[in-house]
Design a protein that fits this description.
11 strands; alpha/beta
Length: 292
Amino acid sequence: MKTYVSGATGFVGSHVARELRERGADVRDERVDLLDAEGLERVVRGCEVVVHVAALYSFDAPLPDFERVNVEGTRTLLGVAARTGVRRFVHCSTAGTCGPVPGRPATEEDAPPAWELDVPYKRTKLAAERLALEANAVVVNPTAPVGEGDRKPTPTGRMIANVATGRMPGFVATTGLNLVDVRDVARGHALALEHGEPGERYLLGGVDMPLEEVFAAVARLAGRPRPRLRVPYPVAEVAGTLGIVNRDEVRLARLPMYFSSAKARSRLGYAPGPVEPALAQAVAEALTKGGA
């Protein structure tokens, strides 16, 4: 099965391309600008499947870049896939388009709180996801992947590196993360390709953990004291307003970012393993590089 994977040089995309090859797919992974319709048509033509993983995952890039990559890039690739007769399109979105919601893990039936849509990354990923659903793509929504190969790194990888190298003395006490092994996310993409329903979305997560516990686990793996400075959310909000910390990251720390993968488990056969080995790999890489 000839398959084009966009973003295959990135953290999640490289694992997706590897997983699909191991399952027997003939993967094309040439890097092409997402607004280069002619170049995309050249690499997509003859493919039965497109798995769109490429995106701008950042909280400090210029707004036009988010619109260009996440929205217009998705629109262009969807158009190319339609013109070239692609049979199946899997779109990698983010769990952030499903929540979080207060008091419980969010599901595919939920939506993010209004204040989080001020964050360009989240707003443009939601817009891209809606384009994909309108085109009858299968959508997967990974939570916070960790593991081998987060070289750029992603914002999650940078956070791990900063804790592992002693650069993160405290944590926002109101929030938490759903961490997942990036290899499980890659398997989830393959399962969605095989079993996903067009026009549906599937959360691909692992384990919900308060941020304090995440930082403690990273510090333990790095052989460092755990960060103990509990930062109340209003204090973090003021720091974001003053530019001391990233304002968008503070906006996303107001609620625990917890998600349920029950739908993917029951309908795709998704079965994530423990996240600790992947977290250990991420910490080891961070220490080798000396942080981010």
